[in-house]
Amino acid sequence: MEIRLRLGGLNNVSPLSAMRIFAPIICLSGALIIGCARHHDGAAVVHPDSLQSSVGQRVTLVGVAEPWKLGAALRGADFFVWIDGLHDWPSGYVDHRVQVVGILEVRHDLPVFVQRPDDLPKQGMPVPEGTDLDAASRRYVVRDATWSLLR
Asked: Measured in whole angstroms, how far is the alpha carbon of residue 107 from the centre of its chain?
């Protein structure tokens, strides 16, 4: 008994022929995935839980490009970083997956303050009474960054 398959517009395709068609495609896909996981520029792929331990190092981050008043940012599943010196993402990047490579830094420059009832309004971001202002002002920034749109 011989088994025949129907593949798309192809009728009567034997399993061996189907394997000959799909094996190169699967191998090429695997090679592309493995090739994309390596970074020839020496940048380490950073996992969100290791952001702090990667400060000062050249890193590779993948996330979604977002526009903010403070500039361009990259949001991953468990991280959020700013792109130093980039005020707006190039056309077609916003809300798309982007790979960013650069030096990861921590800065304490967000304008946070405790808003008290009798104070005049201030510029910045109000935080509740008792907040650690140094921790609240912290942000991760990628400097000397290059970026590419992932498809």
From this structure: 19
Q: Are residues 32 and 60 in the same domain?
A: no
Quote the pLDDT of residue 74: 97
- The verdict on 52 and 33 lying in the same domain is no
> Is the pLDDT score of 65 beyond 90?
yes
Q: Distance between CA 73 and CA 100 in Å, rounded? A: 10
Contact 47, 77 (CB under 8 A): no
**Mean pLDDT of the region 47-59:** 80
Overall average pLDDT of the 123-127 stretch: 88
Q: How far from the centroid of its chain's Cα atoms is residue 99's Cα?
A: 6
24 with 50, same domain?
A: no
Yes or no: say if 44 and 58 are a contact pair by the CB < 8 Å rule: yes
Q: Which amino acid is at 52?
A: Q
